[in-house]
Specification:
heterodimer, A: 453 residues, alpha+beta, TATA-Binding Protein, 3 domains, 16-stranded mixed beta sheet, 8 helices, B: 292 residues, Lipocalin, 8-stranded antiparallel beta sheet, 5 helices, 38% strand, globular
Chain lengths: 453, 292
């Protein structure tokens, strides 16, 4: 009898050990371990160093009969900016600081315009031996065998003059001389006299605006939205993405949220929001904010070559505040205008909002992709002024605004289309008293901002 | 060695092996059934924190270790469809506006919003009872239930939640949905009674699609939820009582195909104010964190 009991007990113990071995091997993890098993900071890309965060808005080279304009996306733009940036970074091994350099009949070779402004001073890559300041423009001038940089501060007041050492002078002079080409379009600088002569009325020019003096030919572009690795993007925003839940929108968009922050993925990009952080202060300095903007775009999707930081400013009310950084894509020197854009709001507490909608040319021919001959600038400006007045009268503003501030006159591409196909329509972009006008470059038909993607 | 002795040795060996396996299998959660998420010291500390900030705990707390998961839901289109069919059979005519579809009968207007929110407006209101204001809550609840049943406005799983009474005599009866015995606070039905008449019924009802057991996690304790709430709200000017702390599901209302709803601790203050604390993250749930 006792042997029988032993046999049964032994069989039970063997069965139990087999069951527990199976459980141990294949069984589920205890509930509380699931939330803790992912806890690493995932980023798409390391932030760019400060010297690569900022590029000029435009570089204007003096030609025999006007100016050549180089902007982001032009190969010459990068060559010129890297050379100038290098000189500013090397400091006293490249130049000597001089006073009263503007005596005499000198030539202006080229001008670099910065928007956002270039920070210089201690602990910064550029002019680290100079007092802390910001630079709005750098003019490169020459007289006989001398070349010097003339730095203009934010208020357009001439500041430092940097006389280049002879070996650097040769390099810079050579680079500028190589930039001339038969394919480049000659531009004119808009002046009050030119405006009066062409438009037969006075308009205020708030910025140095260069307009093409020849007919410009542009191609309609087939565009594609930036490819987003949604899984990676999700991990860059939610350290523990197990806690994020999914909302499937009716239009096919996906929202991830943990109740505190939300991330919406769409066919053209994404939008992130953490509204609770709005109640924070922004004590970071302008250069620190510039670096933080680089972290934001680098961490959350990376910073493609075609995207340029076009704006960085502090805003807020009362005791709260935040920086707003905006980026714009460029194609061969022309900006791509979008409605949503790529924009980040951040303060000392973190990232409040980030929307990312970037497009690049797909290099595919458009089915009816004929070249577009852009209308001349004066016609475009006249049309925009008429539209401005029409809008004013529609708003019921009986007294017409006498002072019209012309803030931008640029050629570029408006991103239009739908999920099936996106295209870049060549447009004149004109900004008057803060109001934006997009006019199709060939027939000046207006495009509303709502028509842009 | 005889067979009996060999069996004894094997029994001892397997018993030892089973102890070893059992230790590794259950040790991290050993005593889980008897383990409490809230110790007596933690409870005292939370009560002291509440008192310091002018709140007092007037509810029994669930002190056991609780686990939960996300619940996938979609708007309850079946219920809505059945209801609309009923109104059409009653002779309702249909019109569309920008974000709503409207059904009009002689007595009521039914407005369907694109996110599934449904508003039944009675114009004039339907008499609930003469001098309803003087009836007690139990009688009123019975009358409301009878009205909803009669009007085919009783979705599955509906449970009375609480009643609000304004000084002007306006009464609002709040209901939520029960899934098993777990409340889905995001599913709501409100009945508004004014001057003895039912004026409006607002329904945002959800269809539970699935629970996601693969994402089951241990939730934060009820005391942790209260600590987080006090930290977020700060001290109260008037003393406020915490009447109820209960685990359920809650999220904002979305104009979406379907979405996942997290578990929350719902904290009720003075019988009428509700705060929803995400039971995984400890954050207070907001209506929507995506900007329009």
């Amino acid at each position: 009898m006792i042997e029988k009991i032993k046999s049964i007990l032994l069989m039970l113990l063997v069965a139990l050990s087999l069951f527990m071995t199976y459980q141990l091997w294949y069984g589920q993890k205890p509930a509380q371990l699931i939330a803790e098993d992912v806890f690493e900071r995932v980023i798409a890309e390391q932030p760019r160093p400060l010297e690569e965060v900022l590029t000029p808005e435009k570089i204007v080279v003096n030609a025999e009969e006007g100016y050549y304009i180089f902007r982001q996306g032009d190969p010459d733009f990068i060559i010129l900016w890297e050379a100038v940036s290098q000189v500013l970074q090397e400091g006293s091994s490249s130049f000597m600081v001089e006073d009263n350099m503007v005596e005499g009949d000198f030539n202006n070779l080229l001008t670099l315009y910065f928007n956002p402004v270039l920070p210089v001073g201690a602990d910064l890559p550029w002019l680290s031996e100079a007092p802390d300041s910001t630079v709005r423009a750098i003019k490169i001038n020459s007289l006989e065998d001398k070349i010097w940089f003339e730095l203009f501060e934010r208020d357009n007041v001439s500041g430092l003059s940097l006389l280049l050492l002879p070996e650097i002078t040769e390099i810079i002079a050579g680079l500028i001389a190589d930039r001339g080409s038969e394919n480049l379009v000659n531009h004119a600088l808009l002046t009050d006299d030119l405006i009066l002569a062409v438009m037969e009325k006075n308009l205020n020019l708030t910025e140095p605006i260069y307009v093409p003096m020849e007919t410009v030919e542009m191609e309609r572009l087939v565009l594609k939205p930036e490819e987003i690795d949604s899984d990676l993007i999700l991990k860059t925003f939610f350290i523990d993405y197990n806690l994020a839940r999914i909302i499937e929108e009716k239009d096919g968009g996906l929202i991830y949220t943990d109740g505190d922050r939300g991330l919406r993925l769409s066919s053209t990009g994404f939008e992130y929001s953490a509204p609770r952080l709005e109640d924070g202060q922004a004590n970071a300095s302008y250069p620190d904010a510039m670096f933080n903007s680089s972290s934001v775009i680098g961490y959350h999707g990376g910073w493609p070559e075609s995207l340029r930081l076009v704006s960085l400013y502090l805003t807020g009310r009362g005791r709260t505040g935040y920086y707003i950084a905006e980026w714009q894509a460029y194609h061969q020197g022309y900006p791509l205008f979008t409605r949503q854009g790529t924009r980040a709001f951040f303060n000392d507490r973190g990232l409040i909002h980030f929307s990312r909608n970037a497009f690049t040319s797909s290099n595919l021919p458009l089915e009816n992709g004929e070249e577009v001959h852009a209308a001349v600038w004066s016609e475009a400006l006249r049309e925009a002024v008429n539209l401005y007045h029409t809008n004013e009268s529609q708003l019921g503003n009986e007294i017409q605004v006498v002072d019209l501030n012309i803030e931008a006159v640029d050629l570029g591409y408006a991103v239009v289309g739908s999920d099936a196909s996106y295209k870049g329509e060549p447009v004149w972009f004109i900004q008057i008293n803060g109001e934006k006008f997009f006019l199709k470059a060939d027939n000046l038909e207006p495009l509303s901002e709502e028509e842009l993607i | 060695m005889n067979l009996g002795r060999a069996k004894s040795i094997l029994i001892i060996a397997f018993a030892g092996l089973n102890l070893f396996l059992g230790y590794h299998l259950f040790w991290p959660d050993f005593g889980r059934l008897t383990k409490v998420a809230v110790t007596a010291e933690e409870l005292r500390a939370t009560e002291a924190l509440l008192e310091d900030n002018n709140y007092f705990l007037d509810a029994a707390l669930d002190r056991s270790v609780r686990a939960s998961d996300f619940l996938t839901v979609s708007p309850a289109l079946d219920f809505q469809g059945r209801l609309l069919q009923y109104f059409i059979e009653k002779g309702a005519w249909v019109s569309d506006s920008e974000n709503t579809t409207n059904f009009q009968t002689e007595r009521e207007t039914i407005i369907i919003h694109s996110n599934g929110l449904m508003r039944v407006v009675y114009n004039p209101g339907v008499l609930l009872a003469e001098n309803a204001i003087n009836l007690d809550e139990r009688e009123l609840r019975a009358l409301i239930k009878a009205f909803l049943e009669n009007e085919k406005l009783m979705p599955e799983g509906i449970t009375f939640d609480y009643m609000e009474r304004s000084e002007e005599g306006r009464m609002i009866f709040h209901h939520y949905q029960l899934l098993g015995n777990i409340p889905i606070y995001a599913s709501q039905l409100k009945v508004v009674v004014e001057s003895d008449h039912i004026e409006l019924i607002e329904i945002f009802w959800l269809e539970p699609v699935e629970r996601i057991p693969a994402r089951e996690m241990e939730v934060i304790s009820a005391t942790q939820a209260l600590n987080n709430l006090v930290h977020e709200l700060g001290p109260s000017f008037d003393q406020q009582g915490i009447d109820q702390v209960e685990l359920g599901y809650f999220s904002g209302e979305y104009d979406a195909e379907k979405w996942e709803v997290p578990p929350v601790w719902r904290v009720t203050l003075d019988g009428k104010k509700h705060y929803y604390i995400n039971a995984f993250t400890g954050n207070i749930e907001q209506d929507s964190v995506i900007l329009d």
